[in-house]
Amino acid sequence: MQAELQTPEVAQSQHDLGDSRRRFIANLEPSRRGFVTNYPNFQHWKKVQPEQVYPVAPVNIYVHIPFCAQQCSYCYYRTVTGSRKSEMDRYVDALCKEIEQSSERFGLRERPISSIYFGGGTPTLLDEKSLSKITETLHKYLKLDSNNMLEFTVEGEPVTVIKKKADALKKLGANRISMGVQSLCDDVLKLSNRQDTEEKVTRAIGFAQETGAAVNIDLMSGLAGESMETWQYTVKRALETGVESITVYKTELYANTQYFKDLRNEKITLPNDEEEIEFMRYAMDQFANANYLPWCFFTFTKNGNYQHVHATRIWEGEDYFPFGVSAFGRLGSFLFQNTNDVSNYVEQMERGETPIVRGHRMTALDEIVRDILLGIKLNFLDYGYFHDKYGFNLDSLCGKEINELATKGYVERKDGRLVLTHEGMVQGDYTGKFLARALINQYAV
Ligand SMILES: C[S@@+](CC[C@H](N)C(=O)[O-])C[C@H]1O[C@@H](n2cnc3c(N)ncnc32)[C@H](O)[C@@H]1O
Ligand code: SF4
User: Fold this and answer.
1) 223, 72 in Cβ contact below 8 A?
2) How many whole angstroms separate alpha carbon 95 and alpha carbon 63?
3) CA of 288: how far to CAs of 126, 205, 414, 421, in Å?
4) Does residue 249 have its Cβ closer than 6 Å to ligand 2?
5) Is the Cα torsion angle 259, 265, 271, 273 positive or negative in sign?
6) Which domain does 440 fall in, by range?
7) CB distance 71 to ligand 2 below 6 Å
8) Are residues 252 and 131 in the same domain?
9) Which of 99, 140, 266, 397 is most exposed by smallest CB count within 10 Å?
10) How many angstroms is it from 135 CA to the middle of ligand 2?
11) pLDDT 10s digits, 210-225
12) 406: closest CA among 377, 378, 371, 381?
């Protein structure tokens, strides 16, 4: 978690600690005297409780469902379409086996769970029986204590969120439903090979809202066929739904998509970067007028009330464990990912193997850079957090670049924080990448 703002006393004690560290090696002369027994010196060690020494750190759970009703033309996710029920059932069985096996193998059983996220693909494509089977398995093998478990999100495509499905999500305990809406203009949806229509989408949002869960909808700026006029309509209709939060993704073009092929064959055109920036500026103005406030630089919440726990915790560096094909996670300084082939995944689980195929142990530099890149998505970096965790002042690491960004109007230093300005938010990850580049260029070997 990012630390609270530093009080003057904390800042003073950190300064004392720095002084004491400097004294530790001051007046250094060649000598065999002064055998080093420990570091940092005991003088600054404080009284602690045993649970501080061995903290049972919370973990977040990600469950991946790869199935979709169709392959949307812009989508770069590895998804599976046209699956038979028997194939989905086999996948769900494999998933449940992984939950049972990995909760034991990776010591997850004792750890408090902060959040669960069923992502995809399209989790709402599964029937009620399969969704309950997965949820029951999580309950059986993990500590889903309602005191700690703050959020249970299920991602869905509106066309699959019928009344019966929404009721099932409520029964499972989902308290956040996130739907890919992308656009509320039928022509734009059709050009992206979506089955949804404005009517189906608004009906599905209504069903999701009736469950009492917080509803998020994703919009995409820069789809094929988008103009300022269609975008204005989408933003207006999105606000009229009264959902808890609206997320705007900038359309990214990937080589594995139908968009990529259609663009090359001149079947479609896409808005250019300048047009997309204008779409984002327009949306942010409308959101501000409706008091939808930025929780991160691409999600805006009604009256600033809803914080998406799962993403916040991950961006703040908490662990997350992945279940399912191609899912990735983090335990401590290790990042890792499961196989991205569904058949391999299912077969490996049936043989009782672990599906993890690749990983990376982060260096201290990786962790600092990651904390900058992901942390700033929440619109600020906390100086105290970096000081407490790494012992560095952020300004001493990349003060020159921070000054440059401040001069360009993307950030400002305020109350112990480096805060993104409105323009900084419009430019998305640019600020984080600018600072990350400085650190990598200077320190990476
Ligand atoms: C994994 S999808 C889940 C939602 C659900 N399957 C649906 O489409 O309704 C998550 C979100 O990723 C976003 N997305 C997919 N492809 C994208 C792309 N090429 N560029 C930017 N965002 C994209 C979409 O906004 C989508 O809602
Ligand atoms: S946008 Fe959603 S429904 Fe469409 S292919 Fe991607 S994950 Fe599947």
Assistant:
1) no
2) 8
3) 36, 22, 21, 14
4) no
5) positive
6) 364-445
7) yes
8) yes
9) 266
10) 22
11) 999 999 999 999 999 9
12) 381
